[in-house]
Specification:
This protein is an alpha/beta fold. The protein folds into two domains: about 170 residues, 3-Layer(aba) Sandwich (glycerate kinase, domain 1); about 170 residues, Rossmann fold, CATH 3.40.50. It contains 16 helices and twelve strands. A six-stranded parallel beta sheet has the order 3-2-1-4-5-6, sandwiched between helices. Helix 1 packs antiparallel against helix 11, helix 7 crosses helix 9 and helix 13 packs across helix 16. The mean pLDDT is about 95. It comes from Rhodopseudomonas palustris (strain ATCC BAA-98 / CGA009).
Length: about 425
């Protein structure tokens, strides 16, 4: 049987390339102002975006280095060389003290902006964790505990960010308020959220926030989150309401999305179609429990196989895992594990599920798996090792399972993030 793994990897790589800062950022950068460019970046692509901005302003436009200042706060292991913009590596998904320093420094720099200056904000997925500025009365440890509870709850990312925005001094429009004296605030964002909602990307530090403290409290109740009393008090303090539309902070603010999950999914589809596959495009905004979505997709694969179709089933979006076990993994690996469980008797199947940032769940390390692949070799290994996927699923230990079969996808940091890419080749 033909090895489909190179094709699966080519499909994934095309999706990543379509959203890489080196390829997409320069065309969207605004003209230089008469004063300074204050560049503040956050997220997994922050350092790469900052480096691309440096090349544009310092090399292409020959700006004096003294006119460009800033700080990029990115995930540990996602640093790239920069010349004048400082890079801080911070925690993700669990925020840490380095993220506090990055956020505090960013707020302080924004506050120095004058009418002659451009406040350039570069956002990518992961910015919510990287920029951590707990509101008054909440400690970093308490914010970490709240983050942990949210991530284990199975709540979609938009709901997670609704709570985080109301515990922060930088999220929910507050960075724009800090820099409201700038002549212009321009935010360029790589979207990692379903439906590309601006207020959800990095928790919307420079845009009006449509969510409220009441919304955050309702989510805490819905998911039965056990939070520190100081956190609950903050969520009931009207001073922590996020910045709303019509606020003067947004008078000179512009927001633009420069890469979307849809564009990356389209790039992936182009590769699959070029390889001779009929396409089942399930959309770029899928949400839901990873194992439930995987079961539905496995059924689509069975039906395609039964009808003799040469089909590529592709989807994007961001799935979730309600964590009940003690294992390791992320939604893409759990999705792949369900496929391995349900399709092991079906010949002619190969699949990949991975996060375009290069890390699916994990412990926040640069060498965490991006996801996993399955094909006939996987099923052979499962049989040879007498592996049963069920207990691994019960323990949320997809990483442990695929480490044994040798099917983890390790890419390292990709320096962008437009959610997940999943493909099943039938």
């Amino acid at each position: 049987m033909t090895d489909r793994r190179p094709l699966l990897r080519a499909i994934f790589d095309a999706a990543v390339a379509a959203a890489h800062p080196d390829r997409i950022l320069a065309a969207h950068l605004p003209p230089a102002p008469s004063g300074r460019i204050i560049c503040l970046a956050a997220g997994k692509g922050a350092a790469a975006m900052a480096a691309a901005a440096e090349r544009h302003y310092l090399d292409t436009l020959n700006l004096e280095p003294s006119q460009l200042i800033g700080i990029a706060t990115t995930r540990h292991g996602h640093r790239v060389p920069t010349r004048v913009i400082e890079v801080i590596e911070a925690g993700h998904p669990m925020p840490d003290a380095a993220g506090v320093r990055g956020a505090e420094t960013s707020l302080a720099l924004a506050a120095t902006a004058t009418q002659d200056d451009l406040l350039l904000v570069l956002l990518s997925g992961g910015g919510s964790a990287n920029w951590i500025a707990p509101t008054e009365g909440v400690t970093l440890a308490q914010k970490q505990q709240a983050t942990r509870a949210l991530l284990r709850s199975g709540a979609p990312i938009g709901e997670v960010n609704t709570v985080r925005k109301h515990l922060s001094r930088i999220k929910g429009g507050r960075l724009a308020r800090a820099g409201e004296h700038a002549g212009q605030i321009v935010t360029l964002a790589i979207s990692d959220v379903p439906r590309d909602e601006p207020s959800a990307i990095a928790s919307g530090p420079t845009v009006p926030d449509p969510t409220t403290l009441a919304d955050a409290c309702a989510l805490v109740a819905r998911y039965g989150l056990e939070l520190d009393p100081a956190v609950l008090a903050a969520l009931n303090d009207e001073r922590n309401e996020s910045v709303k539309a019509g606020d003067g902070a947004f008078a000179h603010a512009r927001f633009e999305i420069i890469a979307r999950p849809r564009q990356s999914l389209d790039a992936a589809i182009e590769i699959a179609r070029g390889a001779g596959y009929e396409i089942a495009d399930l959309g770029a905004d899928l949400e839901g429990e990873a194992r439930d979505v995987a079961a539905a997709h496995a059924q689509l694969a069975r039906e395609a196989r039964a009808h003799g179709r040469r089909l590529a089933i592709l989807s994007g979006g961001e799935l979730t895992v309600t964590v009940r076990g003690q294992g390791r993994g992320g939604p893409n690996q759990e999705y792949a594990l369900v496929l391995a469980q349900q399709l092991s008797d079906l010949p002619g199947i190969a699949a990949l599920a991975a996060d375009t940032d290069g890390a699916d769940g994990g412990a926040g390390n640069a060498d965490d798996p991006a996801g996993a692949l399955i094909d006939a070799a996987t099923f052979t290994q499962i049989a040879a090792l007498q592996l049963d996927p069920a207990p691994y699923l019960a323990d949320n230990d997809a990483t442990g399972f695929f480490a044994k079969t040798g099917d983890l996808l390790i890419t390292g940091p990709t320096l962008t993030n437009v959610n997940d890419i999943r493909v099943i080749l039938v």
